[in-house]
Design a protein that fits this description.
Number of strands: 9
Radius of gyration: 18 Å
Structural class: alpha/beta
Distance between the termini: 31 Å
Shape: globular
Strand content: 15-25%
Strand order of the largest sheet: 1-9-8-5-2-3
Helix content: 25-40%
Order of helices and strands: EHEHEEHEEHEHEHEHHH
Bound molecules: 2-phosphoglycolic acid
Number of helices: 9
Protein backbone atom coordinates (compact mmCIF):
# COMPACT_ATOMS: atom_id res chain seq x y z
CA UNK A 1 0.00 0.00 0.00
CA UNK A 2 1.10 3.53 -0.71
CA UNK A 3 -0.08 6.48 1.37
CA UNK A 4 0.57 9.84 -0.23
CA UNK A 5 0.09 12.82 2.09
CA UNK A 6 -0.20 16.31 0.63
CA UNK A 7 -0.54 19.56 2.58
CA UNK A 8 -4.08 20.39 1.50
CA UNK A 9 -7.03 19.47 -0.72
CA UNK A 10 -5.79 21.34 -3.80
CA UNK A 11 -2.37 19.70 -3.72
CA UNK A 12 -3.90 16.26 -3.11
CA UNK A 13 -6.26 16.80 -6.06
CA UNK A 14 -3.40 17.85 -8.30
CA UNK A 15 -1.24 14.91 -7.25
CA UNK A 16 -4.10 12.48 -7.96
CA UNK A 17 -4.77 14.04 -11.36
CA UNK A 18 -1.10 13.84 -12.33
CA UNK A 19 -1.02 10.19 -11.26
CA UNK A 20 -4.10 9.35 -13.35
CA UNK A 21 -2.66 11.29 -16.30
CA UNK A 22 0.65 9.41 -16.11
CA UNK A 23 -1.13 6.04 -15.84
CA UNK A 24 -3.12 6.75 -18.99
CA UNK A 25 -0.21 8.18 -21.00
CA UNK A 26 2.16 5.36 -20.01
CA UNK A 27 -0.48 2.78 -21.01
CA UNK A 28 -0.43 4.22 -24.57
CA UNK A 29 -4.13 3.62 -25.25
CA UNK A 30 -5.16 3.12 -28.85
CA UNK A 31 -8.17 1.92 -30.80
CA UNK A 32 -7.55 -1.76 -30.06
CA UNK A 33 -6.32 -1.12 -26.50
CA UNK A 34 -8.57 1.09 -24.42
CA UNK A 35 -7.62 2.21 -20.92
CA UNK A 36 -10.46 1.40 -18.48
CA UNK A 37 -10.87 3.94 -15.72
CA UNK A 38 -13.26 3.59 -12.78
CA UNK A 39 -14.47 6.90 -11.39
CA UNK A 40 -16.22 8.03 -8.22
CA UNK A 41 -19.03 10.49 -7.70
CA UNK A 42 -19.14 12.86 -4.70
CA UNK A 43 -17.40 16.15 -4.00
CA UNK A 44 -13.91 14.83 -3.19
CA UNK A 45 -12.81 14.14 -6.78
CA UNK A 46 -13.97 17.51 -8.18
CA UNK A 47 -10.56 19.19 -7.78
CA UNK A 48 -8.89 16.23 -9.44
CA UNK A 49 -11.41 16.26 -12.31
CA UNK A 50 -10.76 19.99 -12.86
CA UNK A 51 -7.04 19.30 -13.21
CA UNK A 52 -7.69 16.44 -15.64
CA UNK A 53 -9.81 18.80 -17.74
CA UNK A 54 -6.87 21.24 -17.70
CA UNK A 55 -4.43 18.58 -18.93
CA UNK A 56 -6.93 17.61 -21.61
CA UNK A 57 -7.41 21.19 -22.78
CA UNK A 58 -3.68 21.80 -22.95
CA UNK A 59 -3.32 18.74 -25.19
CA UNK A 60 -1.33 16.65 -22.70
CA UNK A 61 -4.03 14.08 -22.15
CA UNK A 62 -6.56 12.49 -24.47
CA UNK A 63 -9.57 10.45 -23.40
CA UNK A 64 -10.19 9.20 -26.94
CA UNK A 65 -9.27 5.64 -26.04
CA UNK A 66 -10.34 5.72 -22.39
CA UNK A 67 -13.48 3.93 -21.18
CA UNK A 68 -14.92 5.08 -17.89
CA UNK A 69 -17.06 3.18 -15.41
CA UNK A 70 -18.85 5.06 -12.66
CA UNK A 71 -18.80 3.53 -9.22
CA UNK A 72 -22.31 4.30 -8.17
CA UNK A 73 -25.53 5.99 -9.03
CA UNK A 74 -28.60 6.96 -7.06
CA UNK A 75 -31.87 5.24 -7.71
CA UNK A 76 -33.99 8.31 -8.17
CA UNK A 77 -37.22 8.07 -10.12
CA UNK A 78 -37.36 11.87 -10.31
CA UNK A 79 -34.22 12.22 -12.33
CA UNK A 80 -34.70 11.10 -15.89
CA UNK A 81 -31.01 11.55 -16.69
CA UNK A 82 -29.87 8.79 -14.41
CA UNK A 83 -30.36 5.91 -16.75
CA UNK A 84 -28.97 3.09 -14.62
CA UNK A 85 -31.01 4.12 -11.62
CA UNK A 86 -34.16 4.17 -13.70
CA UNK A 87 -33.77 0.75 -15.24
CA UNK A 88 -36.83 -1.44 -14.99
CA UNK A 89 -34.84 -4.42 -13.82
CA UNK A 90 -32.18 -2.99 -11.52
CA UNK A 91 -30.34 -6.26 -10.93
CA UNK A 92 -30.17 -6.89 -14.69
CA UNK A 93 -28.72 -3.40 -15.02
CA UNK A 94 -26.08 -4.26 -12.42
CA UNK A 95 -25.26 -7.59 -14.07
CA UNK A 96 -24.91 -5.86 -17.43
CA UNK A 97 -22.51 -3.36 -15.85
CA UNK A 98 -20.30 -6.16 -14.54
CA UNK A 99 -20.43 -7.74 -17.98
CA UNK A 100 -19.35 -4.48 -19.62
CA UNK A 101 -16.35 -4.28 -17.28
CA UNK A 102 -15.45 -7.84 -18.20
CA UNK A 103 -15.81 -7.11 -21.92
CA UNK A 104 -13.49 -4.12 -21.49
CA UNK A 105 -10.85 -6.48 -20.11
CA UNK A 106 -11.27 -5.31 -16.51
CA UNK A 107 -10.53 -1.96 -14.93
CA UNK A 108 -6.96 -0.69 -15.20
CA UNK A 109 -7.30 1.98 -12.51
CA UNK A 110 -10.27 2.35 -10.18
CA UNK A 111 -10.38 5.73 -8.49
CA UNK A 112 -12.56 5.83 -5.40
CA UNK A 113 -13.73 8.07 -2.62
CA UNK A 114 -14.96 7.06 0.81
CA UNK A 115 -17.58 8.22 3.24
CA UNK A 116 -16.85 9.15 6.88
CA UNK A 117 -18.22 5.69 7.77
CA UNK A 118 -15.54 4.08 5.60
CA UNK A 119 -17.79 3.06 2.75
CA UNK A 120 -16.15 2.67 -0.66
CA UNK A 121 -18.60 3.47 -3.46
CA UNK A 122 -21.93 2.82 -1.71
CA UNK A 123 -20.74 -0.30 0.09
CA UNK A 124 -22.12 0.65 3.44
CA UNK A 125 -20.89 -0.81 6.75
CA UNK A 126 -21.59 -4.53 6.83
CA UNK A 127 -21.42 -5.00 3.06
CA UNK A 128 -19.80 -8.18 1.89
CA UNK A 129 -16.16 -7.63 1.02
CA UNK A 130 -16.63 -9.85 -2.05
CA UNK A 131 -19.83 -8.09 -3.19
CA UNK A 132 -20.57 -7.30 -6.84
CA UNK A 133 -22.58 -4.51 -8.48
CA UNK A 134 -26.04 -4.35 -6.91
CA UNK A 135 -28.78 -2.28 -5.34
CA UNK A 136 -27.97 -0.99 -1.85
CA UNK A 137 -30.08 0.75 0.75
CA UNK A 138 -28.11 3.74 2.01
CA UNK A 139 -27.11 4.12 5.66
CA UNK A 140 -28.55 7.10 7.54
CA UNK A 141 -25.02 8.56 7.89
CA UNK A 142 -24.68 8.61 4.10
CA UNK A 143 -28.11 10.14 3.61
CA UNK A 144 -27.24 12.88 6.12
CA UNK A 145 -23.81 13.52 4.54
CA UNK A 146 -25.28 13.74 1.05
CA UNK A 147 -28.21 16.02 1.88
CA UNK A 148 -25.90 18.88 0.81
CA UNK A 149 -26.45 17.80 -2.82
CA UNK A 150 -30.24 18.02 -2.37
CA UNK A 151 -30.72 21.53 -0.92
CA UNK A 152 -30.12 20.13 2.56
CA UNK A 153 -33.55 18.52 2.32
CA UNK A 154 -33.40 14.99 3.74
CA UNK A 155 -36.67 14.02 2.13
CA UNK A 156 -35.14 14.61 -1.31
CA UNK A 157 -32.10 12.35 -0.79
CA UNK A 158 -32.58 8.97 -2.48
CA UNK A 159 -32.48 6.11 -0.01
CA UNK A 160 -31.16 3.57 -2.47
CA UNK A 161 -28.32 3.43 -4.93
CA UNK A 162 -26.74 1.16 -7.48
CA UNK A 163 -23.13 0.55 -6.63
CA UNK A 164 -20.21 -1.54 -7.71
CA UNK A 165 -19.32 -4.11 -5.08
CA UNK A 166 -16.15 -4.21 -3.02
CA UNK A 167 -15.20 -7.28 -5.08
CA UNK A 168 -15.74 -5.33 -8.31
CA UNK A 169 -13.22 -2.70 -7.22
CA UNK A 170 -10.85 -5.33 -5.80
CA UNK A 171 -10.66 -6.86 -9.30
CA UNK A 172 -9.16 -3.66 -10.72
CA UNK A 173 -5.48 -3.87 -11.54
CA UNK A 174 -4.86 -0.77 -9.47
CA UNK A 175 -6.94 1.26 -6.99
CA UNK A 176 -6.51 4.89 -5.98
CA UNK A 177 -8.57 6.18 -3.08
CA UNK A 178 -8.93 9.90 -2.40
CA UNK A 179 -9.49 10.89 1.23
CA UNK A 180 -9.56 14.54 2.26
CA UNK A 181 -10.83 16.44 5.26
CA UNK A 182 -10.81 15.94 9.02
CA UNK A 183 -14.28 14.35 8.82
CA UNK A 184 -12.68 11.37 7.02
CA UNK A 185 -9.75 11.03 9.46
CA UNK A 186 -11.29 8.25 11.53
CA UNK A 187 -12.16 6.33 8.37
CA UNK A 188 -8.56 6.59 7.12
CA UNK A 189 -7.33 5.29 10.46
CA UNK A 190 -9.75 2.35 10.22
CA UNK A 191 -8.77 1.80 6.60
CA UNK A 192 -5.05 1.39 7.14
CA UNK A 193 -4.15 1.00 10.81
CA UNK A 194 -6.69 -1.59 11.88
CA UNK A 195 -7.67 -4.94 10.42
CA UNK A 196 -9.82 -5.80 7.44
CA UNK A 197 -13.39 -5.37 8.61
CA UNK A 198 -16.65 -5.30 6.69
CA UNK A 199 -17.90 -2.52 8.98
CA UNK A 200 -15.24 -0.29 7.32
CA UNK A 201 -15.43 -1.58 3.77
CA UNK A 202 -12.49 0.50 2.52
CA UNK A 203 -10.24 -1.61 4.79
CA UNK A 204 -10.63 -4.46 2.25
CA UNK A 205 -8.00 -2.73 0.12
CA UNK A 206 -5.31 -3.77 2.57
CA UNK A 207 -5.49 -7.02 0.63
CA UNK A 208 -5.20 -5.46 -2.82
CA UNK A 209 -1.70 -5.69 -4.30
CA UNK A 210 -1.75 -2.15 -5.70
CA UNK A 211 -3.63 0.42 -3.66
CA UNK A 212 -2.63 4.03 -3.34
CA UNK A 213 -4.33 6.32 -0.84
CA UNK A 214 -4.01 10.02 -1.65
CA UNK A 215 -4.96 12.28 1.23
CA UNK A 216 -4.49 15.71 2.73
CA UNK A 217 -3.02 16.52 6.17
CA UNK A 218 -6.45 16.84 7.75
CA UNK A 219 -7.34 13.27 6.84
CA UNK A 220 -4.29 11.99 8.75
CA UNK A 221 -5.35 13.46 12.10
CA UNK A 222 -6.28 10.09 13.63
CA UNK A 223 -3.18 8.23 12.38
CA UNK A 224 -0.21 7.40 14.54
CA UNK A 225 2.65 9.89 14.34
CA UNK A 226 4.98 7.09 13.24
CA UNK A 227 2.65 6.12 10.37
CA UNK A 228 2.53 9.69 9.11
CA UNK A 229 6.31 10.13 9.51
CA UNK A 230 7.05 6.91 7.66
CA UNK A 231 4.89 7.75 4.66
CA UNK A 232 5.97 11.39 4.56
CA UNK A 233 9.53 10.10 4.44
CA UNK A 234 8.57 8.26 1.27
CA UNK A 235 7.26 11.35 -0.51
CA UNK A 236 10.45 11.72 -2.53
CA UNK A 237 9.86 8.23 -3.91
CA UNK A 238 6.14 8.81 -4.43
CA UNK A 239 6.69 12.10 -6.20
CA UNK A 240 8.69 10.30 -8.88
CA UNK A 241 5.35 8.78 -9.93
CA UNK A 242 4.00 12.18 -10.94
CA UNK A 243 7.16 14.08 -11.81
CA UNK A 244 7.74 14.33 -14.69
CA UNK A 245 4.16 14.64 -15.84
CA UNK A 246 3.93 12.67 -19.06
CA UNK A 247 2.18 14.06 -22.06
CA UNK A 248 0.46 12.32 -24.96
CA UNK A 249 2.26 14.52 -27.44
CA UNK A 250 5.68 13.48 -26.13
CA UNK A 251 4.78 9.82 -25.79
CA UNK A 252 2.98 9.21 -29.09
P1 LIG B 1 -17.81 12.95 -0.82
O1 LIG B 1 -18.54 11.54 -0.87
O2 LIG B 1 -16.68 12.85 -1.80
O3 LIG B 1 -18.84 13.93 -1.27
O4 LIG B 1 -17.32 13.14 0.58
C1 LIG B 1 -17.79 10.37 -0.84
C2 LIG B 1 -18.66 9.19 -0.51
O5 LIG B 1 -19.66 9.32 0.22
O6 LIG B 1 -18.33 8.09 -0.98
Amino acid sequence: MRLVILDNYDLASEWAAKYICNCIVKFKPRQDRYFSLGLPTGSTPLGCYKKLIEYHKSGNLSFKYVKTFNMDEYVDPNNAHILDGNAEDLQAECDAFEEKIKEAGGIDLFVGGIGPDGHIAFNEPGSSLVSRTRLKTLAMDTILANAKYFDGDLSKVPTMALTVGVGTVMDAREVMILITGAHKAFALYKAIEEGVNHMWTVSAFQQHPRTIFVCDEDATLELRVKTVKYFKGLMRVHNKLVDPLYSMTEEN
